Amino acid sequence: MPFNGGMLRIARQRNGLQQGDAAKRLGVAQATLSRAENGLIEPSEAMIERAVVVYELPHSFFFQSDPIYGAPVSVHPMWRKKASVTVRDMDFIVAELNLWVMHIRRLLEAAEIVEGAGVPHLDIEDYEDPEIEDYEDPERVAGLVRACWKVPPGPIQNLTALVEQAGVIVIHSPLGESAVSGVTFAVPGLPPLVVLNEGLPADRLRFTLAHELGHLVMHRFPTPNMENEANVFAGALLMPAADIRPYFVGRRVDLALLAALKSEWKVAMQSLLMRARSMGMVLPNQERYLWQQFSTRKMRLHEPPELDFPVEKPSTVGSMIQSRGSMALISRKEGAVDPYCVLFNKLFRYSAPRS
């Protein structure tokens, strides 16, 4: 099997190293490393062995034939405006996504996955209406997704389970401690992958998952409006207007009401306020006052902990790891070694469910 320069780049990016720093550690010129990563030259055996030590990866890692993919639509640099998301963050995320794809491809070989309802592919332009506001288009798409998945009216009790049942693989990861909340990755021949930042509270994890689902459903290419469209989709998916409107009718929208609704709808108080605004259920002056209250009480980033609810745990990957682990145990009894299990356990800390 020939050397894969893309794997050399992935190893560097996941270790958070720029090319110049990595070249110094490998004891080669940066130009040499660049050509090796781009597949223009075959690195020496000494360079490969040095990469094994520097990146703490097995020799076989650099000879895997998997295709390497670029940045996904949901974090594409073309439309990424967050200054807090650095080039190093992007490199790490792209590397980690590629590694997840490689391992999931191998895990699927050993797992029996029951196909779910599937993720509808809807073009938002098909639902445009010149007589309504733009924000209502993703709202209508969210309603179609709920209908397609036969979601009953009211709050979605476990969004993660619902999305996994539809065939999407959900993963919680540190994402290199970046400011990215979540990313969506869809590659040919594999189920869609959504990776969520495990450092988020439960309400933000749910909203981020709904947001990323919006990208999966509506977006094939990066567009200037896709982040706002995904946010509107997420709000409508988690809080359908027809279902949540009665909770606001005839009631003053204040912090007490938002706190009471948070536990029932499993969304942030701020998301509830934005939903109330989108439906015209809160007066502008009251909305401004509430945002001031969020800031004064330091609730913008951290809402009251007593309102927290349990994080929804993904289960699909854990089940696949358990299945692969069972095969690895059999292989070891037969005197063989399962290199993918060894590598997976080395790169990722992910607990399989207990049987």
Overview of this structure, please?
Among the domains are: 5-65, 434 Repressor (Amino-terminal Domain); 124-307, no CATH class. 50% of the residues lie in helices and 4% in strands. The protein is built from 15 helices and three strands. It has helices spanning 5-14, 19-26, 30-37, 45-55, 87-110, 136-148, 159-165, 202-218, 226-238, 241-244, 255-265, 269-278, 284-296, 316-333, 339-347; strands at residues 169-173, 182-185, 193-197. Strand 2 (182-185) and strand 3 (193-197) form a beta hairpin. The chain is elongated and about 75 Å long. The two termini are 37 Å apart. Mean pLDDT is 85; it is low at 329-338 and 349-355.
Mean pLDDT: 85
Distance between the termini: 37 Å
Radius of gyration: 23 Å
Query: Which term fits the overall shape?
Result: elongated
Instruction: Please tally the helical runs, counting DSSP H or I stretches of 4 or more residues.
Output: 15
Total strands: the figure is 3
Helix content: 40-55%
- Major beta-sheet overview: 3 strands, mixed
Q: Beta-strand percentage? A: under 5%
Strand order of the largest sheet: 1-3-2
Strand-and-helix sequence, N→C? HHHHHHHEEEHHHHHHHH
Q: Which parts are unreliable, with pLDDT below 50 for 5 consecutive residues or more?
A: 329-338, 349-355
Structural class: mainly alpha
